[in-house]
Design brief:
The chain is built from eleven helices and four strands; from the N terminus they run ααβαααββαβααααα. With 245 residues, the protein is mainly alpha-helical. α2 (40-55) packs antiparallel against α4 (72-81) and α2 (40-55) crosses α5.
C-alpha cells in the first residue's frame, strides 16, 4: 500500500466508500488494449483520460492538453512510474494512445496548441466533429464508427453477448488459438441470426465445423437447419460434445 509522503502513513487506509463515484472503462480495453501496452506512460495517460473525461465540464466532453499538463495527480503518477520529466512522459503517452486509437485527438492549429482528447468511441468522434465550427479538426486515421474486426473474438463477444469474465476470457483465448479467425467471425454471425447469443452455442458451432467443415459459405440457406437435416437423414442425433484436437 502506498505511503503518504508527508506523514509516512499508508494512503487510503480506510479504503473506498461504498458510495464512491466510479469511472467507466470499456471491458475491451482490458481484454484487447492492456495486454499490448509496453510503455507505462501510455497506460497511465490512457486510464487517466478516461477519468478526466468522465469528470469534464466541457460540452461536448473532452480533455485538453493544457488541463492534463496542469494536473498534479497525473504528473505525480508519471514521475513515479516513468523515466524522464512528467511533461515528456505525458506527451509520449498521449502519442502512443492516439496511435493505438485508444484515444482520439483534435487540433485547432498547426503549431500543436489547443489539443483536445477523448476516448475513442463513436459518440465522442461525432461530438468532436461538431467542434469544427470552432476550428478544431480530428486527426489520424480512425476506425469506422460501427463494425467490428472479424478476427477480434473479444470485440465480437462484447458486441453480441456482453461483458467478459476472467473465465470467459480464458475460453476466448483458447478458441482464438484453436480456430481460424474467419470461423470465429461467422460463428458469432450465425448465432446472432439464430437469436442464440451465448458463448456455449457459438462454441458448439465451432466444434461442429471442426468435425464436419464450415457451412457459412452457403448463401440463402439456414445453416443450422441444413446441419440438423443432414444429421437426421444420416440417422444420428445432434451431438453437442466437445471435440478438440
Amino acid at each position: 500500500m502506498a505511503a503518504n509522503l508527508e506523514t509516512g502513513k499508508p494512503a487510503n487506509r480506510d479504503g473506498f466508500a461504498n458510495s464512491a463515484a466510479g469511472t467507466v472503462i470499456p471491458n475491451a480495453f482490458f481484454a484487447n488494449v492492456l495486454p499490448e501496452i509496453t510503455d507505462a506512460a501510455e497506460l497511465v495517460v490512457t486510464t487517466y483520460v478516461f477519468f478526466a473525461f468522465a469528470s469534464s465540464e466541457h460540452r461536448p466532453r473532452y480533455v485538453t492538453l493544457a488541463g492534463l499538463e496542469s494536473d498534479a495527480g497525473l504528473a505525480r503518477s508519471l514521475a513515479n512510474l516513468c523515466e524522464g520529466l512528467p511533461a515528456e512522459s505525458l506527451r509520449r503517452g498521449l502519442g502512443l494512445a492516439v496511435q493505438r486509437q485508444s484515444l482520439i485527438q483534435a487540433r485547432r492549429d498547426e503549431e500543436g496548441d489547443n489539443l483536445l482528447f477523448a476516448p475513442n468511441m463513436p459518440a465522442n468522434r461525432q461530438a468532436l466533429e461538431r467542434l469544427a465550427a470552432d476550428g478544431f479538426r480530428l486527426e489520424d486515421p480512425l476506425p469506422p464508427a460501427t463494425g467490428e474486426s472479424p478476427d477480434n473474438i473479444y470485440t465480437l463477444y462484447e458486441a453480441n453477448i456482453g461483458g467478459i469474465t476472467p473465465l470467459i476470457a480464458e475460453e476466448l483465448r483458447d478458441a482464438e488459438r484453436h480456430y481460424p479467425a474467419e470461423w470465429i467471425h461467422y460463428a458469432f454471425r450465425e448465432a446472432a441470426e439464430m437469436n442464440k447469443r451465448s458463448w456455449r452455442y457459438i462454441r458448439r458451432i465451432l466444434q461442429r465445423w471442426e468435425t464436419e467443415g464450415p457451412n457459412y459459405a452457403t448463401d440463402g440457406r439456414d445453416p443450422e437447419a441444413d446441419w440438423l437435416a443432414k444429421r437426421y437423414s444420416a440417422g444420428k442425433r445432434p451431438s453437442h460434445g466437445r471435440t478438440r484436437r
